[in-house]
From TrEMBL:
Coiled coil: none annotated. This is Bifunctional uridylyltransferase/uridylyl-removing enzyme. Uridylyltransferase (UTase) activity is inhibited by glutamine, while glutamine activates uridylyl-removing (UR) activity. Gene3D superfamilies: 3.30.70.260, cca-adding enzyme, domain 2. Belongs to the GlnD family. It comes from Candidatus Dactylopiibacterium carminicum. The gene is glnD.
Length: 854
């Protein structure tokens, strides 16, 4: 690096440090953003003067740099514009100029194009066209720059550009699940991020309406209140992004858990008695993002109406308060909501009732935003408004879109004040990836999806159940209230019951319907806990659950709500295994309530006969199974369903005394993952070795049934799944032979399988650690003990538990593995002499806790 470049580089470093110090002193984002632009401008202009490049060339700043906003670690995007293709010596000068920019320590995004090529590429790519909109001359030919500006305007069709930017925004929203309320949002790209504001400016620029918020106000596109909101919320997001860059020491736009506490500290926010500092700063961010999504929707529609004026749209009356303009719902007068406050809720109901309407006009949206203040206690007590709200839940369509719109414009929180308390509230349970309000709306969407015919192929049983369910909209109410009491302290299910009961009574629901909704809110966690933590082959589990639900109607409603609830937490939490457990519990309990005998309640002889029927189907002669079945006891037949018994028998009937380990794997009956059977002479640490083998292969054990025959053979069954490939069936078929051969070979050698390597700790667990717990208590018949553990999930967790149990000579009979995001909640049925000794039991629990700590 030559001395000249070193000196310029040091000037940049000193200037950026001064800008950072000034920002930390006064928090003014514009001073830093524009200050860094001026600093880089001056440096590049110096380089240009020393470059000897042709005077007919022009150096342009584009993108965010062209806009005059350079964040601390943002790329410096430039366009070297030429009037003709360069010759060989000029190419060398260009390469040297770009190389010197990199030597300055700048992350340069550069393009080198002739004017003709530049305009041609812009006409084919809306991203390039957008970047060029904000092009700013840094150095070089003013004539070429003026020519570029003139041709750029000629090549831009504003209506096409507007449509392209809307499509681009829709695709971006899809990537982020249409919500700004994920727990680790991107302050630039997520809905409600800076990109939403930039999209408005780009379209305004393309339409020749200016590049500043004041310009839009001058043209009547935004109100004075909206102007203030745009400036204040943009300022907050700019501060957030600048601070993220400083904290990370690099380009970072995601509010990841790693940075949230530091971000709060940089704003001077400290923890309170009820909230972490990170929760406070994130709630501020969410409220700003929510307001930005509102403004984005309103202003983009305003711009669209400028290109296609509403006056040219066909209009027809809906009623005395509303009309349709084209495919938009419109109020007939600006003061409709002041004169008829009930029209606030009516507007959303009309959107549900008129599928030809695709949205609301700008004046309707603006009027709704201001009308939220009209929703007072008197408004909530008005029978007309209560009827309208119920009708919105009862309509055959539109709940998903309209309740999201109700929340977006703060109408839902105004009508249900307790809902307002959970807007933007984070959940640090490591398996919810949305704030509480967004999770509730996601659950509502999932329940609604079961009703829609187009989605019947996704979950056919649930679709059939909900369409046969009289007044299924009661489940919508339960979905709205199931988590509404989170964050208040205490049991949110109990507190939510009270809210749900008040709502139902106030809205005139029948006693029977009120009782159902309240019961669903109270027990919305019960079914998932039983399905994932208890032994569904145990008849008593089914009987107790049946006694709790009492009626088939309650059971069906709870199954629908539970399914929707788990799927609404995170894409990582839901899988086919959880679906199969819920369905098994539902079907068995329904049979019991119908007076039939579910499989779990069959006696030994009935189970054996069902298994024999399956064996005959596969061509095995009667009596073939006898020799093998004589080795098995009552417990085996009670814990394994007839299909499993038949599979084991087909594999082992001709080798019940096999001297070599037998390992057989197949696709799991649930359609994903593998079912693995191991049959071998029992040996010390056998279960530990098997856990170690699966962990080293990267598989998660979802279920394990451990059985020892009377003559000393172990017959163990596992359901395993690759957490990274849980939806790829072909992946499992490829490894079946590998598992069968490798595991059998390891067990035959009798070698203890090496423990799995420690897994990498997730970012969530670093910042929101889970305090491990170990609960050991006798089962209801006092024959075995139930061991329940909760800990941070990681590779080798089950291996460490199994090794500790083996060291204390504890026999493990079944293992039920429940993984909820980053949290493992596992339940084991165990026995052993040590469990009858209180001192040894305390020692076992202490050792388990030590193993579970990170």
């Amino acid at each position: 690096m030559d001395a000249r470049i070193a000196a310029l580089r040091q000037q940049l470093v000193d200037g950026q440090q001064a800008l950072r110090a000034a920002f930390e002193h006064d928090g003014n984002p514009q001073r830093l953003l524009r200050g860094r632009c001026r600093l880089v401008d001056k440096t590049l202009q110096t380089l240009w003067q020393e470059s000897a490049l042709p005077g007919s060339y022009a150096l342009l700043a584009v993108g965010g740099y062209g806009r005059g906003e350079l964040y601390p670690y943002s790329d410096v995007d430039i366009l070297l514009l030429m009037d003709a293709e360069p010759d060989g010596p000029t190419c060398g000068l260009i390469e040297r100029f770009i190389s010197r920019m990199w030597d300055l320590g700048l992350n340069v995004g550069h393009s080198v194009r002739t004017l003709e090529v530049c305009l041609d590429e812009a006409s084919q790519d809306v991203t390039i066209q957008t970047n060029l909109l904000e092009a700013r001359l840094l150095a070089g030919s003013r004539r070429l720059h003026r020519e570029f500006i003139a041709h750029r305007a000629d090549h831009l069709d504003i209506e096409t550009f507007y449509s392209a930017k809307l499509a681009e925004q829709a695709q971006r929203y899809n990537r982020f699940n249409h919500t700004p309320f994920s727990l680790e949002p991107n302050c630039k790209e997520s809905p409600g991020g800076l990109r939403d504001l930039q999209t408005i400016i780009w379209i305004a620029l393309g339409a020749g309406l200016g590049a500043r918020w004041q310009d839009l106000a001058t043209h009547g596109l935004i109100t004075p209140e909206e102007l203030r909101a745009l400036r204040s919320n943009e300022r907050l997001l700019q501060q957030v992004r600048i601070r993220l860059h400083h904290i990370a020491g690099r380009h970072e736009d995601r509010l990841v858990f790693d940075h949230q506490e530091s971000l709060a500290a940089s704003f001077g926010i400290t923890a309170s008695s009820g909230k972490r500092a990170s929760e406070v700063v994130m709630q501020r961010y969410y409220l700003a993002a929510k307001r930005i999504t509102q403004l984005n929707s309103i202003i983009l529609q305003s711009l669209g109406e400028r290109f296609t004026p509403l006056a040219t749209w066909e209009t027809f009356a809906i009623n005395e308060r509303f009309q349709a303009r084209g495919d938009q719902l419109d109020i007939v007068a600006d003061d409709v909501f002041q004169h008829a406050p009930s029209a606030i809720l009516e507007s959303f109901l009309l959107m549900q009732q008129h599928p030809e309407l695709k949205g609301m006009t700008v004046r309707t949206l603006r009027a709704l935003w201001h009308a939220r203040r009209l929703i007072t206690p008197a408004f909530r007590r008005d029978p007309r408004n209560r009827e309208l709200f119920l009708r919105m839940l009862q309509e055959p369509r539109g709940q998903t879109h309209e309740f999201r719109r109700l929340n977006q414009y703060s109408i839902l929180g105004a009508y249900l004040p307790n809902f307002a308390r959970i807007v933007g509230q984070m959940q640090h349970d490591l398996f919810h990836v949305y704030t509480v309000d967004q999770h509730i709306l996601q659950v509502l969407r999932n329940v609604r999806r079961f009703v829609v015919e187009e989605h019947a192929h996704e979950y056919p049983l649930l679709t059939r159940l909900i369409n046969d369910f009289d007044r299924y909209w009661l489940i919508f109410i339960a979905a709205l209230f199931h988590d509404i009491a989170k964050g208040r302290g205490g049991d949110h299910s109990k507190l939510g019951m009270a809210d749900a009961r008040r709502f139902c009574r106030a809205h005139g629901l029948a006693r029977e319907d009120t009782a159902l909704v309240v019961w669903l809110v109270e027990h919305h966690l019960t079914m998932s806990q039983i399905a994932q933590k208890q032994d569904l082959s145990d008849p008593e589990v089914i009987r107790r659950f049946g006694a709790l639900v009492k009626t088939e109607r309650r059971l069906t409603a709870l199954y629908i709500l539970t399914h929707a609830d788990i799927r609404g937490t995170s894409p990582k939490v839901w899988n086919n295994w959880k679906a199969s457990l819920l369905e098994e519990l539902f079907l068995a309990t329904r049979q019991l309530l119908q007076g039939k005998r579910p499989q779990q309640l069959l006696g030994i002889s009935e189970r054996q006969e069902a298994a024999r029927e399956r064996l005959r189907f596969f061509g095995l002669r009667p009596g073939t199974e006898d020799a093998f079945w004589r080795k098995l006891d009552t417990l085996y037949f009670m814990r394994h369903d007839p299909e499993e018994v038949a599979w084991h028998t087909r594999t082992l009937y001709y080798r019940p005394d096999s001297p070599e380990p037998v390992v057989k794997a197949r696709m799991s009956p649930i359609g994903r993952g593998l079912q693995v059977m191991v049959y071998t002479r029992d040996q010390r640490d056998l279960f530990t070795s098997q856990c170690g083998f699966f962990a080293r292969m990267g598989y998660t054990i979802l279920d394990a049934k451990i059985h020892t025959t009377g003559d000393g053979y172990a017959l163990d069954s596992f359901v395993i799944m690759d957490p990274n490939e849980s939806e790829v069936a072909a992946h499992y078929r490829d490894v079946v032979t590998l598992i069968e051969h490798e595991l059998a070979a390891r067990l035959a050698c009798g070698d203890c399988i090496d423990p799995p390597p420690p897994g990498r700790l997730s970012r969530q667990l670093k910042h929101f650690p889970i305090a491990p717990s170990v609960i050991l208590q006798p089962d209801e018949r006092s024959q075995h003990f139930i061991l329940s553990i909760a800990a941070a999930d990681r590779p080798g967790l089950l291996y460490n538990v199994a090794r500790t149990l083996a060291a204390h000579e504890i026999n493990l009979h079944t293992a039920k593995i429940a993984t909820l995001g980053e949290r493992a909640e596992d339940t084991f049925l165990v026995s052993g002499a040590a469990l009858d000794n209180s001192a040894k039991t305390v020692q076992l629990q202490a050792e388990l806790l030590e193993k579970l700590r990170l």
